[in-house]
Amino acid sequence: MLYVRVLGPISADIDGEPVDLGRRNQRAFVGILVAARGDAVSADRLIEELWNGRPPPRAIVSLQAYVSNLRRVLEPTRVSRGPATTLVRRSSGYALCLPENAVDAWRFEQSLAQARSLPADQARPLLLEILRWWQGPVFGESRDQPWAIAEASRLDELRLLAREQAIQAALRVRDHSAAMLEAQRLVRDEPLRPEACRLAALTLWAVGRESDSLEALRQHREAVRDEFGLDPAPALSTLEQAILNQRTELLHAETEPDRIRPAQLPLQLAVFTGRDAELAELTGLARASAGTVLVAVITGMGGVGKTALALRWAHQHQDEYPDGQLYIDLLGFAPAGEPLPPAEVLRGFLISLGVAYDAVPVSVPDRAALLRSMVNGRRMLFILDNARDADQVRDLIPGSAGCAVLITSRALLNDLVTMHHAHPVNLSVFVAEDSGHYLARRVGVARTTAEPDAVRAIVAVCGGLPLALAVVAARIVTNPTFTLTAIAGELRGSEGLDAFAAPGVSRDPRSVFSWSYRHLPAAAAALFRHLALHPGPDAGVAAAASLTGAARATVRTWMNHLVEAHLIREHRPGRFRFHDLLRAYAAELADGHDDAGTRAAVVRRSLDHYLHSAMSATALLLPQRYPITVLPPAPGVTPEIVATEAEALDWFDTEYRNLLAAVAVAEDDDDGRYCWQFNWAMAHYVQDRRARLDESITHLLRALALAEKHQDEWWIVNLTLNLARTYYRIDQRAESRAWYERGIELSRKSGDRFRLTQSLLGLAGVINGEHRVPDRQAAEAAHPYAREALEICRGLPLDNGRVLNEAVALGHVAWYESHQPNGYQTAVDHFGTIIDTLLRIDYRIGAAGTSLELGHLNQHAGATEAAIVAYHRTLELAGDVPELQAEALTGLVYCYRDLGDDAKVEEFRRAALAVIEHRHHPGMQRIRATLEASAR
Questions:
Q1: How far apart are CA 744 and CA 734, in angstroms?
Q2: Which of 150, 438, 726, 854 is the most exposed place for a label (fewest CB within 10 A)?
Q3: Which residue has the higher pLDDT, 316 or 519?
Q4: Are 916 and 924 in contact (CB under 8 A)?
Q5: What confidence score (pLDDT) does residue 925 get?
Q6: How many angstroms separate the first and last alpha carbons of the chain?
Q7: How far, rounded to the nearest angstrom, does the alpha carbon of residue 465 sit from its chain's CA centroid?
């Protein structure tokens, strides 16, 4: 592997052996390309920079000689006149085409960014290691050349930042003496740098040398004043005052070990009345549970204020839980969609505590165990809001003494009380006095005192339900000219919300909701009704706009009306959610005001919005995928259009629960078209990007049953193949093979040649295994299927689908050829053809997988050096796909073991284990087992 160094004299080596970069100008040529960070540098600029604006008469000839010499040195295996892969020609200039980890300066910057995201105990050794890479001035003898000055200065600043971060990390891991020595060296090197002085003073304070710390700050203050005539930076003055006043909390904040302290408590209500007894009860329970985990279940009817009570107590006592507070709405009684499964909640909690998305374990027990491990020894508060039953929350309860869990639910959760000794806290409606106090605080004492009879009437109509009181109060304060008597009269004339009557509530909240609803603008009122028909748990402005056909800015105004009237809640910026009772009321209104055709049209517009948005997003995530025909959306539907792959992934993450709810609507309505197309649009996200494989299988089986019911042959085959692939992804090979065999049978019967090639290739893949070396028996068993698929492909129209299938088929043929006499080179050529083909259609991940197979082939054939090249190319092409990275790194481990290079073996083994760490996909576990075997 080529490695270029510029953090000191410009030099290079290949596989650890130094190479001769030639004389000064030729070395400077390399430095200029490194400074360009992979961008092309024109020949004219190169000539200008190399000869400082005074080029010799035949400078272009000299430049071409430099290129020729350097290519010979940097690419020793390149065939004569073959295409260059390292020092490449682009347009009218040249570029250095190398991965980030092949240039010390690039790798330094990458590692420094990585260190910023690591906890101190992991960041410090990494920072110390990369600082050792510096062997002198950047670009060595060329440091002062005009082309080098800006980049060298930038890298010097990054080096200072790395030194500062290393000192900060040393403080965090309580290595105060080392931090002090490093900070003092930094001050000697950079006496006027404010952060260097701050760290020096801080480290002296940490080791108990307060007077020396103050002296360091004084010396810096005088030096800055003498040099610039300025006062020291504010941070230094703050530190000096903290030392003088012995405000050690500032020192502790800088020296405590890194820990993510989530602070997820939503904003508590500005007006909170009553509940003194319940607050005192929770406080008493917390004190009595000091040696264990407090689990309290706040129960009561919808709208009675369970969440408000939990949040009030949590905010009052959050200082008692200094390690963080976690909050989740479990959607247990949401009228549409399903409650959040424990697996999803655990994933969110673990990510909030710093676990990487793809490092979250697969199973619920493993996620729960990891959560308990991360919380162990910490004092944290959990708010589990709106739970459906005990099963939904059982795995979310930590085991660390000193933690507290507040659960709100309409159900009693008796199982939790019995098995986990949870403490029930029953919440009833307000008494009249508390209702009166609430209104007085919301609308003003002057207004309530002036009309006491009206206040009593309003309180009676609301029946002590806090949600009802909040809606009425919002209307009163936004209409200061309305008398309370008039408002009370309107409320008395309304009918009750019978479906949500409850003991202790003398009047249902429907009258309150209807009164608020009647005062909405007509368009906002229609939106309120139609949002109840939206399938998912929450909606963004774009989805709401598609329901109405209006412009998004207009719909946002209508949504604001609903928020102001307390008819809907903006629980996240731009995301809106009903309270359960209000959604039920809105649904009743839709049933009463809109005919069946209108309601069906609203539902269809919602499905169209999510379907076409998902199609747009999945096209960015996997542009090489074959397209399907989707009927145009209803007029006025405006799907969301994402511009980048990252935006597409974020959209799926945000809308996933809504997409599942939309699929459920299609399933319930027996609407095959929507059901099948939703599964197609979501397949890549749920299977490959987020590995929600169990959920994927569940919905695919439902969709297949629907396709069979409707006798839609095309979708039957499509869904069958999707199921086969999903079972393969979870390593259930027997099930996968059975589904692929069924796909072959169905495709032959229907005459669908494209699906037949996919079925044949899928079965060949099950036989051969993915990214592995098949033995002769497997390769020969898979070969007839691959050969048939290849022959069929050649008769199909030329498009990306055919190109991909041909590439896959040729790969299986290559493995077959590799087991034939003298077939090794034929197999190598086939794999090379596949890589070139896939890169032509910009399918880099597919090319990475093929390069990995080429590495396995070369390694198996004893061509170790060729295998190393292939594995490195896999790493270059694989991007952030961890399984391909881990496979390639593991291959390098075995290659260097064969070469007897123990240092390289250990380097790549550590790198592979770092990729695999905390990932529990079956394929990753297989790679881990391989690595462990290599260590033995």
A1: 15
A2: 150
A3: 316
A4: yes
A5: 65
A6: 26
A7: 39
DSSP letter assigned to residue 269 = P
Is residue 403 packed enough to be buried (19+ CB in 10 Å), middle (13-18) or exposed (0-12)?
buried
Q: Please, which residues have CB within 8 angstroms of residue 746's CB and are 6 or more apart in sequence?
A: 713, 716, 717, 720, 755, 759
Chain length of the chain: 936
Beta-bridged to residue 126, according to DSSP, are: none
299's enclosing H/E stretch is: strand 294-299
Q: Say which amino acid occupies 185.
A: R
Q: Please name the helix (run of DSSP H) or strand (run of DSSP E) that holds residue 406, with its range, or none.
A: strand 404-409
Task: Identify the CA nearest to 435 among candidates 451, 455, 453.
Answer: 455
- Residue 283 to residues 14, 274, 279, 286, 420: CA-CA distances in angstroms? 67, 15, 6, 5, 19
* Banded pLDDT at 472 (limits 50, 70, 90): confident
Residue 935 is predicted with a pLDDT of 60
Asked whether residue 494 carries a pLDDT value surpassing 60, the answer given is no
3-state secondary structure of 333: coil
Highest mean pLDDT: which of 186-190, 229-233, 695-699, 770-774?
186-190
Asked if residue 159 lies in contact with residue 134, where contact means CB atoms within 8 angstroms, the answer is: yes
Closest among 774, 766, 667 to 724, alpha carbons compared: 766
| Exposed e or buried b per residue across 243-252, where buried means at least 16 C-beta atoms within 10 angstroms of its C-beta | beeeeeebbe
- Dmax (CA) for the chain in angstroms is 103
pLDDT at 880: 67
Amino acid in position 278:
E
CA distance 774 to 376: 45
User: Which residues are CB-contacts of 216 (< 8 A; sequence separation ≥ 6)?
Assistant: 187, 197, 200, 201, 204
Q: In this structure, what DSSP letter does residue 101 have?
A: G
pLDDT at 493: 63
Average confidence score pLDDT of the chain: 86
Distance CA 47, CA 54 (A): 9
CB atoms within 10 A of CB 104: 22
Taking the complete model, does pTM exceed 0.85, yes or no?
no
Using DSSP's 3-state secondary structure scheme, residue 42 falls into strand
Picking from 214, 219, 271, the residue whose alpha carbon sits closest to that of residue 246 is: 214
Q: Is the pLDDT of residue 456 over 80?
A: yes
**Which stretch of DSSP H or E encloses residue 327?**
strand 325-329
Strands (DSSP E) found in 476-595: 539-540, 569-572, 575-577
Inter-CA distances, 601 with 442, 527, 549, Å: 40, 13, 11
CA atoms within 13 A on the CB side of 198: 19
Contact 115, 147 (CB under 8 A): no
- Residue 232 DSSP one-character state: P
How far, in Å, CA of 534 to CA of 543, rounded?
Answer: 9
Beta strands in 452-558 (DSSP E): 539-540
Tokens describing residue 37: 């960070």
Residue 673's pLDDT is 87
For residue 5, the model assigns a pLDDT of 94
Provide the residue type at 275 as one letter. Answer: R
Burial class (CB in 10 A: 0-12, 13-18, 19+), 788: middle
At residue 384, the 3 state secondary structure works out as: strand
Instruction: Return all residues near 754 (Cβ < 8 A) that are at least 6 apart.
Output: 626, 796, 801, 802, 805
- Tokens encoding 737: 């093979």
Kindly state the percentage of the chain with pLDDT values over 90. Answer: 38
Q: What gap in Å lies between CA 121 and CA 650, rounded to an integer? A: 31
96 CB-near residues (< 8 Å, 6+ apart): 4, 30, 33, 34, 36, 38, 86, 87, 103
**Structure token digits, residue 555:** 């719909």
Average pLDDT over residues 141-155: 91
Write the DSSP assignment of 158-193 as a string of letters: HHHHHHHHHHHHHHHTT-HHHHHHHHHHHHHH-TT-
Residue 4 one-letter amino acid: V
The better pLDDT of the pair 624, 598 is held by 598
- Residue pair 891/850 in contact (Cβ under 8 Å)? The answer is no
Phi/psi for 407 (5° steps) reads -115, 135
CA pair distance 711, 437, nearest whole angstrom: 64
